[in-house]
Amino acid sequence: MYLTEISGISHSIPSAVLGALMRVPPLSPASAKLYTLNEENADMRRVAALISGDPALSALVLRLVNSPLFGVRHSVKGILQAVALLGLDRIRSLATTAAMKMLVNPAFASPALTRCWRHSIATALGTKEVAMRTNFESDSAYTAGLLHDIGCFAMLSCWPKEYGQLLATCPAADLLQSEVEALGVSHADAGAFLLQHWGLPPELVEVSREHHGPLSERKEKLVELVSQGCRLADAIGFSLTAEAPEDDATEDALDYLGAEREGFFFRVSDGINQIECLLL
Question: How far apart are CA 230 and CA 120, in angstroms?
Fold first, then answer.
């Protein structure tokens, strides 16, 4: 039995489940190392060298940098140039997007894995929009939204048939409890453990663990933003489960969009399509 200590609360993960999670391939080591840097200690050449050390990651990052989705006006031909133009936070968000897509091999992508990927991108884009409305740093918000359900990718890696079936049949409201009953861990705890194990920042660990929690327990603003981004993704049809949630939170998300509902759906759908086309 393994106990994680996140936000002062102990959560148990059975040792057999822990062993399975420990065998999950990590995100690209280069992308994970970017989280050990900050604007004060991040020399541009050091950041560029980290990314350039992974040729596959470098190629995907350059594709993203040069796409209309990320708004760079000039052609970017090298990683160092990209870092100089965009800065650490934006480069980190692009590298994380590329690293996440590397987990989704089109040749082996199941309907459940494709849903997880699209829900994650939709949540990232939704969280970024919410952040821009609240003056929160939008690239950090995007990255947190992107990684909030990393536990789902891990569980599909460990138990592809069983977890895929669970996502296909379980009502959204019952998912966390059903995960624990069927597999011994929720995707929230699995993701929190892995992000902590991979050395990512505590605020991202907390987002994974608490974005489904009661409102009163989500103390950090970043968790609130991601939770709203997740509900927005659900509300416009990019839900994690095959059965879309129908609850007050989803209705509230639609109300939050107001007259922007159709525009938001278009922006997210177009963003997912662009990223998938670029990273295939």
Answer: 8
Give the pair of three-digit tokens for residue 7: 């936000």
**122's torsion region: left (phi>0), alpha (psi -120 to 50) or beta?**
alpha
Mapped onto helix, strand or coil, the DSSP state of residue 7 is: coil
Residues in contact with 155: Cβ distance below 8 Å, sequence separation at least 6, in sequence order? 163, 179, 183, 185, 187, 190
CA distances from 85 to 43, 66, 82, 92, 146 (A): 13, 12, 5, 13, 22
Closest CA to 155 of 118, 105, 124, 192: 192
Query: Are the C-beta atoms of 57 and 102 separated by less than 8 Å?
Result: yes
8 Å CB contact between 56 and 85: no
Q: Summarize pLDDT for 161-208 with one digit per residue, the tens.
A: 999 999 999 998 899 999 999 999 999 999 999 999 888 999 999 999
Q: pLDDT digit string (tens) for 10-44?
A: 357 888 898 899 888 888 888 888 888 877 767 88
Residue with tokens 């489904």: 212
Q: How far apart are CA 50 and CA 252, in angstroms?
A: 42
3-state secondary structure of 2: strand
